[in-house]
Each structure stands twice: as C-alpha cells, then as structure tokens.
Amino acid sequence: MSTSHGADSEVGRLRTVMLHRPGPELKRLTPRNNDKLLFDGIPWVSRAQEEHDAFAEALRSRDVEVLYLVELLVETLASDEARERAIQGAMASLHLGDTLRQYLTTALQDQSPEELAGFLTAGVRNDEVRGGHGLVTSLLASDDFLIDPLPNLLFTRDSSVWVRDRVAITSLAMPARERETQLTELIYTLHPRFAGTPKIHGWQREHVEGGDVLLLAPGVIAVGVGERTTPAGAERLARQVFAADLAHTVLAVPIAQERATMHLDTVCTMVDVDKIVMYPNVADSLRAYAVTCVDRAGDGDAGLVLRTAEAEPFLVAAAKAMSIDTLHQIDTGLDPVTAEREQWDDGNNTLAISPRVAVAYERNIETNTRLEEAGIEVVAIAGSELGSGRGGPRCMSCPVVRDPLPA
Ligand SMILES: NC(=[NH2+])NCCC[C@H](N)C(=O)O
C-alpha cells in the first residue's frame, strides 16, 4: 500500500493532503505565551476553524483527498504499542519529575484514543491535574504546562515531508515544536494506512523542517538553511536522498535567520513546472550550493562522498539542476513595500494543486494579480485568523500523494 503514497514535485496533480484543523491547542495561546509558542497574536479559534474548513473544502472540491492529522492520530492510538510510545514520548520531558511522571503515565493509560490525542495535542496544565502531588506540582505555577500544547500542528508542512515514496520525519528546531514529530512518526509507523512506508531522517537527527524542503523537479530538491534547517541538517538530508536514489541534486539555499524568512517556503514556492513565486527583495541575493554525490564509499548514507559546487544565483543553479533554460520568477507585491507586506502575510506561500493552479491567501492582492497575469489560476482563501501563526497554504498542508510529472 505504501508505494501508492508520495510526491516528486511541488506541482504534480495533488491527490491526497494531510491538514490539521485548528483545535483546542489554539485556545492555550495567551499574550504571555504566544511568542514562545510562535504565534504573532491570539487567534479567534472558531473563525480560524471556519477559514480552515473553507481551505479544506477548496481542496476537496478539486478532488483532493483531505486527511486530518488528529483523525490519523486517533486511529493510530487504537494500537496498544502506539499508546505506549505516545505516552512515553510525552512523559520524557525533564519538567516532570518522577512522582508526577508516574501519576500522569497511569492517568493517560486510562484514556480513550480520542482523549489521549486531545492531551497530546492541546497539552495538560498543572491545575488540570488532580493527583501526583509533590514537589513539582507544588512549585510549578498553576498555569504551567506539564505537557506543552502544540498550536503549530496547524503547519503540517514542517513535521513531515514526502520525497518520492519515502516520508521524512523531520527534526524541528524550535522547542515549542519539537514534540510534533513524535506524533507524525507514530502515524507513519503505526497507522495501518502507512504500514511499511519507508522512512528517512527522524526527529533524533540534525534539524530539518519541511518548510525548507522544496521539490523543484523530480530529482532536484532545494533545502533552505536558516533559522530552522541547519547546514548539518541539509547535509544529512542530501546524504539520505542520494543513498536512496531519490534525487541527483540538492541545492542548499542560505536564507536570513529571522522570523520573516523562517523557511524557504516563506520566500518562494513553485506554481508551475518552471515558474516560482518569489520575494523580490531577496531574489537577487539568493544563492544556492549544488550538492551531488560523487562516490559511494561505504555502507549507508555516511559512506557517500558528496561534492559541493561554488555558490551560484539560486535561479541559475536551479534551472541547471532542473535541466531547463529558465526558472521564471513571479514577484511578490508591486513595489518593495507592498512586497514586504505581502511576503510577511505569506503571499509567497502557495500550495499548487496542479501545474498553474495554486491556493493563496486572498489578502495578498498584488501578488495574486501577478500570479494571474502570469497564467496561474489562484484559488483564494481567507486567512485573517489562520495567518496569525505566520503560515500560509503551503505551510498548512503536507502533500501525501501527487501524481508524478509527465516525463
Ligand atoms: N513552512 C512554514 N513556513 N511554516 C510556518 C510555521 C509557522 C510557525 N508558527 C513556526 O514559527 O514554526
């Protein structure tokens, strides 16, 4: 069954996508914790859900199968092994102390899969626990989390990424997001639908986030290196995709280590086989190091000998690796200021449903006009609340099946 899943580009006809409908984890956000939890504001949750439902509907109405992360998680947690692993993972936190850990472990074991999924995603606060009293519960504040909530689950792009028929479990850099990949690993390992799916990477490895991984064309992967994906993470991913023959070239693309450009997909996304929507304010300075494999000296990915070319302008290096004349750039915005505003609001962060059809936030009027002028059909969705986590349609989706591009 596993062979039917996977993607080898950003634009091949989207068949199946994994989303996360915002839920009670967003209700944990307060003005005191939102920075740490990586939200810029406090979303109005029911409106965020409406916006998200409209996003899902836009995909379904175009014959895309929508899977929800929490539904997959609940189904996964029907297995005793999954429950055991999920609880162990959540209890590994060094905040806890043995008294509380033992109490919580037993309490969680008694929950139904739905309830357990709720605690794993929305977290547990100190004042929500009735037992396990001891030093730790007494000294922690009542609103301290014993299990942290995961509001950024919304951005399913980052916690796993398919590269051809393999799924990479990523390794998230920000402490607020670390635990997300325990859940995606569990789903891809123990959910019956994904049984036997070959996996690469893993949350114990060097940091790589899915928002930094762009499948430019079959065999060509761009990896942003910045706030989230480290240079060592990019190298590790390159080794694994070469070892498994998933790609011939990995382009490592340095991006500024700041919030506005936290992932490569905040700066550019593919909207056609040879068109990319890109933030013009960085386009000229964006460079790429092409990495290839020149020898297989030993076993596993560590034995590969890699070659790193001199840095070149990103669009030049990309076109070369993709064996096309030009990778055409469509600019965000109209002028540098509009571009900066629309880039911040994820104007670059589009999700292609097929070549030349892309989902985008409706608010980025100038960018969407440019996309349309370039022959791209824009499927516009509302995102006033969804956007408060700083992520657009691409961040909020993990393509699980895309048709291969015609050769
Ligand atoms: N692929 C993306 N651009 N994801 C956006 C993630 C946003 C999220 N609040 C974070 O800071 O991690």
Describe this structure in words.
This protein has 407 residues and is α/β, with parallel strands linked by helices. The chain has 2 domains: 2-70 and 151-402, L-arginine/glycine Amidinotransferase, Chain A (5-stranded Propeller); 94-147, no CATH class. The protein has helices at residues 45-60, 69-76, 80-91, 98-109, 113-122, 135-139, 156-159, 180-190, 231-243, 280-283, 314-322, 336-344, 365-373; strands at 14-19, 65-68, 124-125, 145-147, 160-163, 166-169, 199-201, 213-217, 220-225, 249-254, 268-272, 275-278, 287-296, 304-308, 312-313, 328-331, 351-354, 357-361, 377-381, 398-402. The strands form 6 sheets. Strands 8, 9, 10, 13, 14 and 15 form a 6-stranded mixed β-sheet that branches. A 3-stranded mixed β-sheet has the order 2-1-20. It has a 3-stranded mixed β-sheet with strand order 5-6-7, with helices on both faces. Strand 6 (166-169), helix 8 and strand 7 form a beta-alpha-beta unit. The longest helix is centred in the N-terminal third of the chain and has 16 residues, at 45-60. The chain is globular. The two termini are 24 Å apart. The site of arginine (ARG) has 16 residues, from helix 7. It is found in: Cytoplasm.
